[in-house]
Each structure stands twice: as structure tokens, then as C-alpha cells.
Specification:
elongated, alpha/beta, Dihydrodipicolinate Reductase, domain 2, ACT_dom (chains A, B), eleven-stranded mixed β-sheet, 14 helices, Rossmann fold, Asp/hSer_DH_NAD-bd (chains A, B), Alpha-Beta Plaits, homodimer, binds NADP nicotinamide-adenine-dinucleotide phosphate, amino-acid biosynthesis (chains A, B), six-stranded parallel β-sheet
């Protein structure tokens, strides 16, 4: 049986679990790959650091380049842009195949790295980069290769789902739940990348690129986080039989492909609404397959390592059998839509003076901007706000542009006291 | 670009949709496969029959064998054992690759057919055979190839899920819901294969074979259907925060691998509990990945055709790139467990005389058989049954053997009027 030399870059949360699996499950892996996977070294910053798993000390090195230059397969689990990018390029340029879970790097340089792999007849795989353990990239690329994907909607960030789910079940405010999530280890000390939606936006770019056979980067993704979601928003949604989730959405329409991350209202009967805690799930719509959903752990050392190892076995299998790479589907030239052209439904909360004619003026503004109203609910306010009423409108799908114009005109009405919330609605 | 000749056997629910996709999406398919897929003919029984899709009349033939002998890829969508089995063998023996959705055939002859494909350096794929459109076989084989699956639990039959879901939401009896399902086209005129659990058992054998790298046949699967589930069972489950689903379960333990299909109680918070109507879903537990779920349409012409086409593109891609087959993982010799050795939890309803000492005798019997009780609830019966009480017990996991002995001894107690229900509980 052929032996393939595997270099591991990084021995942190994920890297340590990959090392463990390579060392303890060697026999099973060899059987499945048709080749022996020999872990030849682990590049880290601090050789002496205490590790989560037992690894022979002589495997550690700080010379990642030398390690790469002796390897057939390189598993990059350092994170960050540099040195990860240079090291991956070094490996691919040598014709070594690379497995990585580095979503930030892929969202920035995925197109270039894929091209470099292709030029060098090397394989580049990154199932772990989106939704951790959940097999989602391969089903999109392979299982759905005979179908046409029309939409992908994913809960792809565990931290924000944990926070929104806790707000939903306890009624607490964002800040309090964030603090609890930090105490429990579900949110980082600096939570910006998660709660600002940037981590989800990286994953949205990767998902959209594969689903639509093209190349989206982080900048192509419209991104809004969850920091402005209030307990009142969550309660109002609950009241209407809905739940707020941070979704990464990529959708094809005649006008092009729009990719966005924002808090989104979903009916509680939608399959994504049942995704609780830090779990992830990706919902896919395809012309023939209809609606599919893939659910599981979106992060964590061992789950993410499972995805890394699935890629590693696949890469090794192909190396062992000596076959050429499969034909890569031509990159389709696509129109990346401007955010203002994207269509969705909107949930709009207004505080208005409770006087005759207000409703008519509001309805008139919506109509003249071509935004049609699906449902409208009016509640008189409790005594503290006597003389005012709360309006809750849900619109049919319309463009962001039309919505913005509508809201601007509505805000100008003398009878409007405040636009209390504007949220997008999907799966309606 | 290489041209591959594709023979389609069958033009029914699924075959017609496959023909449509091959004819209308030829360009996209060629791009993704790296080869042109030329539909060279469609074998049917009745050439003149009216079809669901527009197909050039000269493609139809009744001579399946001649068609196969001129083809690179054969898509079998006839159903049934013969002539499907002989035709698939004919194709594989010639070195043509085969895609099929024929679960009954695979559950009976999967091991042989896979071996025949391997001997002839041909590919055999059957994603459509389990859970229709849902990519499940490939994720199990490929994405999880670096992990060890410990358990698979699937809702893999849409008819029975539709019936159980309707019983749950309406409180109606099995017979009434079955009739409604037949009227709506969700159940066949002869529903035996579905409600008896046999269709699910075929799929359980296929899932277990792939998840555990071995070869299970239909006969290895313990199979119970849903015909004995009453409205009272469903209501009692609901009352306890649970729901009854027909599950195909394959589980690895130290004693071997057990494969079974039976009505199963699940907590309503379990991801499988949220699978409504005729939808399917497969829940997978793996050592590193943890819990995963795959959800979607389990049947229907277009969804099933999507899975068939995914396989077809994969097969064509490999043919176009000229590579050898990937190494097939060695079949692991495994111990198929006797059903009596399988462990699960049980939900047991008893009607007893409401007299002192009954509870103690029952508890004593459970204890002496080594079946430990997790929860127990006693309700006095309404006046119609004065003097009797209802007991509801849920046990910890124990073997079928121990449970059978326990029930036999309990039934012998003079104070027991009736064992009103025995159901298995999972995901507890
Ligand atoms: N954690 C998850 O659940 C998860 C999920 C999906 C994807 N990912 C992705 O997986 C990657 C790794 O994540 P992680 O959580 O395992 O990270 P981590 O715990 O921070 O580990 C990073 C590892 O890389 C090493 N390293 C960092 N910079 C280095 C340098 N310049 N030279 C040599 N070694 C260096 C560190 O060495 P020392 O130990 O010596 O400091 C450490 O072992 C990231 O791209 C992340 O986005 C993670
Ligand atoms: N339907 C689903 O949703 C679904 C889902 C998953 C898997 N599957 C599997 O897919 C397969 C096809 O199912 P289906 O629902 O499409 O079946 P179907 O509607 O009954 O169609 C069967 C087709 O095969 C042809 N045929 C049958 N026996 C033949 C023979 N001896 N010689 C030539 N042609 C013959 C029939 O020809 P005529 O039209 O001339 O009678 C018909 O076109 C089955 O194995 C089924 O289990 C189906």
C-alpha cells in the first residue's frame, strides 16, 4: 500500500483533534483511503505548549516550510491570512494537495487558490470552512451537480444562533445574552466577527461560489449583524409565530445572484426555525430536488476535524488511485447583484399618532412605491403612550431600493412618531 | 468533448423526469460532467403510452438489451426484481456504469451487484434508492469517510410519515388517515409495502451496509410496521411530549450491528420530530462529527430524478477523466445482531387493578429481569373503568430479550388487566 506524507499546520482546537484521529485511527483511514496516511510533522508557534491530545513530541516543528516541502498532503489549521496563505500556495505550487478550514482566507482568495490548485494538478478541499461537521460543500458540488440550485439559506454561525435562540427562549436582551455566551465559551472575548456577521459573510461567499459555479468574495456580500436586535423585536416576532435567525442567503434571480447576511424572520414551522443553540444548518432549494436541509455541529474541535478528515481521505483516495482531477466546471460569468436590487419581504414596525387618515397615507406611500402589503396589524398603545398606535406591516417581496424609498417617505409623514423596526422575512 | 451514450430504462414517475433533464439541461450537464451525455434510447413496456414529458418518439424501444449493449451509462428506473436485475448485470458485465433507484433490488442483491461492478471496473450508484432527493449515501460514504458512524436513524418512508404526522395533528385513527392518504395520492391502493415497514427495511439494509462498510440484506432487518398504532398511542405520546415516527435504525455496539424498522417514540425536541408530512430525514451519529441530519423530499418524480442525475454526472465525470475507480473500502466482517440482543428504551402501558401491592409486584418483576425503570406515571381510570388504574412506564435501555421476559411475567400477574401498549423509545 502506498504511503502518503501528511503535514499538519496548527495544533489548536481543530488541529489537535486531527492529529488524534490521524494517530489513533490510522488503520481505518488507510483502509478507506487505499493508502497509509503518515503524519510527518505538526507546525506550531510554540513547540513546548501543552496540547489537548497526546502527540509524540518529536512531531512538532516551527519550520512549516521545510515540513511542507516533504509532504504529499498539507492540512492547514492555523487560521488567519498569513502565514496561512503563503504556506498553502507553497504546498499547491509543489503539487501537494491541501485541506483547510480557513473561511476568512477562502472568502478573500478562494478563486486564486482554486486556480493555483488546478494549474498544479493538486487538490484543494475545505468542507470544514462552512458549517463545521456538516457535509454541505460536497453535497452542493457533487450530489446536486445534476440539478440547478436556486437558493441557499444557512445558519452558519453558532455564536449568533446561540444568542438569538437564548433571546427567544428567555426574552433577555442582546447584551445580557452575549455576556452569558461569553461566560459559557460560546462567544469570544472579542465577538465582533461573529455578532457583526462577518464570519457568516465569509461562509456566504464560499457557499455562493460553489452553489452557482462562480467566484464570490467577502466584499460581494451585503452584511448586517445582530447587535441591533432587541428583546422587543424577538418578542414581536414570537407573537407573530416567527423567529429571528441570522441567515447567510445566496439567491439566483433573473437579475443576477445576490448574496447577503442579515437577521431574518422565519415562520416557526420553517425547518431552519428548529435549529437551536450553537447548531448550524443549511437549507438549499434546487429546481428538481426541491427543499433540502443539512443540520449538525457548526464548530468544535472534533466535529470540525471530522470534516477535515473526510476531505483528507478523499484527497488521498484520488492520489492513491492515480487518477487525474475531475473536470472543473467552467466558472459561469454572473452578474453580482447590487444590494439595492435584491428582493425580499419586510417586517416594518411603526409608532404612529392614533388619528384618522394615518393608515390611508401610509398605505398610499407603500402603493406609490410599488411595495405591496401582505398583512397589517394595528394595536392601540397602553396608557403610557395614549394617543399613539403601533402598526406592524409585512410586505410582499420587493426590492431594497423600493423599500428604502418607501421608508424615507413614511418617515416624513407628520403622523409617524418612529419607525420601530425593519427586518427582512424569508421562507414566507 | 467526449460523448457518453446514456440508456434510460423506464419512463414512469422518475424516468420521465430524468428524460426531461437529460434533454433540456444538456448544456449544463455537459459542463459539469466534462462530457456530453447523449440519451440514446428509453426502454419501456408500452411504446405508445402517453408520457408526462415530451420525448422524441423514436427514442422509445422495447428492446432494453439491445439498447444496453450500445451504452456507456445505463439508468435503471423500472423497479421490481426482473427484468431489472438481469439488465443491470448485463450492463455491468459489459463495463457500462449503472445508476439505479431500485431499493428492493439493492436490498436483495446489493452485495452481488457491487462486486460485479468492481470486477468489471464499472461504477454502480444508487443515491435515489434511499430518501429520494436527499444526498445521504454519498455524505455517508465520502464526507464521513474519516469518521466512524455509530448510529443512523431515518424517516425514510414518506407514506408512513404522512400518516403518523396526520394522526398526530388530527387525533384520527390509522384507518381513516390511511384512506385520506390514498385519496390524496400519498399512499398506494395496496399500501402493504409502506405501512408494513418493508420499504423502510430495504432502505435500512442499504444505509447500514454503507454506514458500517459491510453487507446487510433485507432479511437482516427486524421489521415492524405502523398498522397497530392507535389514536390512543399517539395521544398518550403527545401527552408525554413525544411523537411516534417509523424509523429505520442501524446501530453499532460492542455486541455487533443491529438493524431494525419499527414505530419509535421521540421527544418533540428531537430534530427528527420536526419532520412533517411526506418529508424524509436521516439522522446520523458519528464519533467525531456528533449529530448530523439530512432532510428533504423522499420521493416524487423530479426530486428523485435530481439524485439520479447527481449520480449520473459523477459517473460521467469519472469516465470523462479516464481515472480508475477509487479503492473500495474492504468489507468489514461484522456480527449481525439477533434482534433479541438489541437494546433500546421501552414505553409500556398497563391497565391494572387499583389495589395495594400491584406496583410493588410489577417493579419487582422489572428489577429481577434487569430492566430498570426511568419514569413511571399512574392515573386512576375514569368511572367507566372504576377500580382499575393506568400505568405508563418508560425504561432505561435494555435488551429485547429482557423486555420480552419482563412482559411475559408481568402479563401473568393476576392484577394486570391488559398490556395496552409496548413501544420503543430512541434519542432519549
Ligand atoms: N475552532 C472551530 O470550531 C473551527 C470550526 C471551523 C473552522 N475553523 C477554522 O480552523 C482553523 C483553526 O482553528 P482553531 O480553532 O483550531 O485555531 P487555534 O485553536 O487558534 O489554533 C491555531 C494553531 O495554529 C498555530 N499557529 C498559529 N499561527 C502560527 C504560525 N504563524 N506558525 C505556526 N503555527 C501557528 C498555533 O500554534 P500554537 O499552538 O503554538 O500557538 C495553534 O496550534 C481556522 O482557520 C478556523 O477558522 C475552526
Ligand atoms: N416514484 C418515486 O418517487 C421513487 C422514489 C425513489 C425511488 N424510486 C424507484 O425508482 C424506480 C422507478 O419508479 P417509478 O415510480 O418511476 O416507476 P413507474 O412509474 O412504475 O415506472 C416504471 C417504468 O418502467 C417501465 N417498465 C416496467 N417494467 C418494464 C419491462 N419489463 N420492460 C420495459 N419497461 C418496463 C414502465 O414502462 P411503461 O411506462 O411502458 O409501462 C415505466 O415506464 C423504482 O425502483 C422505484 O422504487 C421511485
Amino acid at each position: 500500500m502506498k504511503t502518503l506524507k501528511v503535514a499538519l499546520l496548527g495544533c489548536g482546537n481543530v488541529g489537535a483533534q486531527v492529529a488524534r484521529i490521524l494517530l489513533t485511527d490510522a488503520e481505518v483511514l488507510a483502509d478507506r483511503a487505499g493508502a497509509t496516511l503518515e503524519l510527518t510533522g505538526i507546525a506550531v508557534r510554540n513547540i513546548g505548549a501543552k496540547r489537548d491530545v497526546e502527540v509524540p513530541a518529536d512531531l512538532f516543528t516551527t519550520d512549516a516550510e521545510a515540513l511542507i516541502d516533504e509532504s504529499d498532503i498539507v492540512i492547514e489549521l492555523l487560521g488567519g491570512m498569513e502565514p496561512a496563505s503563503s504556506l498553502i500556495r507553497r504546498a499547491l505550487s509543489r503539487g501537494a494537495s491541501v485541506i483547510t478550514g480557513n473561511k476568512a482566507l477562502l472568502a478573500a482568495q478562494g478563486g486564486e487558490l482554486n486556480a493555483l490548485a488546478f494549474e498544479n494538478n493538486a487538490q484543494l478541499r475545505y468542507e470544514a470552512a462552512v458549517a463545521g461537521a456538516i457535509p454541505i460543500l460536497r453535497p452542493i458540488m457533487d450530489s446536486l451537480s445534476g440539478d440547478k440550485i436556486t437558493k441557499v439559506m444557512g445558519i452558519v454561525n453558532g455564536t449568533t444562533n446561540f444568542i438569538l435562540d437564548a433571546m427567544d427562549s428567555t426574552g433577555a436582551q442582546f447584551d445580557d445574552v452575549l455576556k452569558e455566551a461569553q461566560d459559557l465559551g460560546y462567544a469570544e472575548a472579542d465577538p465582533t466577527a461573529d455578532v457583526g456577521g462577518h464570519d457568516a459573510a465569509s461562509k456566504a461567499a464560499i457557499l455562493a461560489s460553489l452553489a452557482f459555479h462562480t467566484d464570490f468574495a467577502f466584499e460581494d456580500v451585503h452584511c448586517e449583524g445582530i447587535t441591533k436586535i432587541t428583546a422587543a423585536d424577538v418578542a414581536a416576532a414570537k407573537d407573530a409565530g416567527m423567529v429571528i435567525k441570522l441567515l447567510a442567503i445566496a439567491e439566483r434571480s433573473e437579475a443576477g445572484i445576490g448574496v447577503r447576511v442579515h437577521p431574518t424572520l422565519l415562520r416557526r414551522t420553517h425547518p431552519l426555525a428548529a435549529v437551536h443553540g450553537a447548531f448550524n444548518a443549511v437549507f438549499v432549494e434546487a429546481e428538481n430536488a426541491g427543499e433540502l436541509m443539512f443540520y449538525g455541529a457548526g464548530a468544535g474541535g472534533a466535529p470540525t476535524a471530522s470534516a477535515v478528515m473526510g476531505d483528507t481521505v478523499a484527497v488521498a483516495r484520488r492520489m492513491a488511485s492515480g487518477g487525474p482531477l475531475p473536470a472543473i466546471s467552467a466558472q459561469q460569468p454572473v452578474k453580482v447583484m447590487d444590494f439595492c436590487d435584491i428582493t425580499t419581504s419586510y417586517w416594518i414596525g411603526l409608532e404612529v399618532n392614533d388619528e384618522p387618515g394615518v393608515l390611508a397615507s401610509i398605505a398610499q406611500i407603500f402603493a406609490s412605491n410599488g411595495v405591496s402589503i401582505e398583512t397589517l396589524r394595528q394595536d392601540s398603545n397602553p396608557e403610557s403612550n395614549a394617543g399613539t398606535a403601533e402598526l406592524l406591516l409585512v410586505t410582499h417581496r420587493s426590492t431594497e431600493k423600493a423599500l428604502a424609498a418607501t421608508l424615507a417617505a413614511v418617515a416624513d409623514l407628520a403622523a409617524i412618531k418612529e419607525v420601530t423596526s425593519v427586518l427582512r422575512v424569508e421562507g414566507n
